[in-house]
Amino acid sequence: MSYDKNNIFAKILREEIPCKKVYENEYVLSFYDINPQKKIHVLVIPKGEYVDLEDFTNKASDKEIVEFNKAITYIVKMLKISNQEGGYRVLSNAGKDAGQEVPHLHYHIFGGEKIGRMVF
Ligand code: AMP
After folding, report:
1. Domain annotation for the chain: domains and CATH numbers
2. 73-88: per-residue pLDDT in tens?
3. Is 41 a catalytic residue?
4. How many angstroms does the Cα of residue 30 sit away from the middle of ligand 1?
5. Dihedral sign of CA atoms 20, 28, 38, 16 in order
6. Distance CA 62, CA 19 (A)
7. Rounded CA gap, 101 and 106, in Å?
8. 95: how many CB neighbours lie within 10 A of its CB?
């Protein structure tokens, strides 16, 4: 699937539409999900144009991949939901069977309460 520059997260990255920002650096942007499924529900996206995890792994630089993973660890500490502080779940949907709605790679981070079954 080719990257659609008009997807909603691309618009957020271009600041054409607002978001409730959690964290930002040169490589990633993190913001609260507009329709939270748990007490804490944030999204983390790379700033580069990648559709999903496969696209990211195939095309992104090692630096982007490392920084994306490091950002997740940083954000869970920021939100005080690290493994030491209660814990969290990371989830990324890819493609139609998973129900991916926005075709720009994003990881959901859930926490702040018991998250429940692995697939909900
Ligand atoms: P997915 O189904 O994995 O593609 O998840 C897309 C997520 O993006 C959903 O949880 C939506 O609630 C969320 N979402 C859609 N538009 C926005 C927006 N403008 N700001 C924040 N989150 C959004």
Report:
1. 8-111 (3.30.428.10)
2. 999 999 999 999 999 9
3. no
4. 12
5. positive
6. 27
7. 10
8. 12
Mean pLDDT of the chain: 96
Torsion of CA 99, 103, 104, 109, to 10 degrees: -10
pLDDT digits (tens, 9 = 90+) for 53-66: 999 999 999 999 99
E strand intervals along 1-120 = 21-24, 28-32, 40-46, 88-91, 107-111
Instruction: Pull the structure tokens for residue 32.
Output: 């609260």
Query: Six-digit token pair at 23?
Result: 């964290």
Please state the rounded mean pLDDT for residues 9-29.
98
Atom of ligand 1 nearest to the CA of 106: 3
Measured by CA distance, the residue closest to atom 5 of ligand 1 is 101
The per-residue pLDDT for 21 is 98
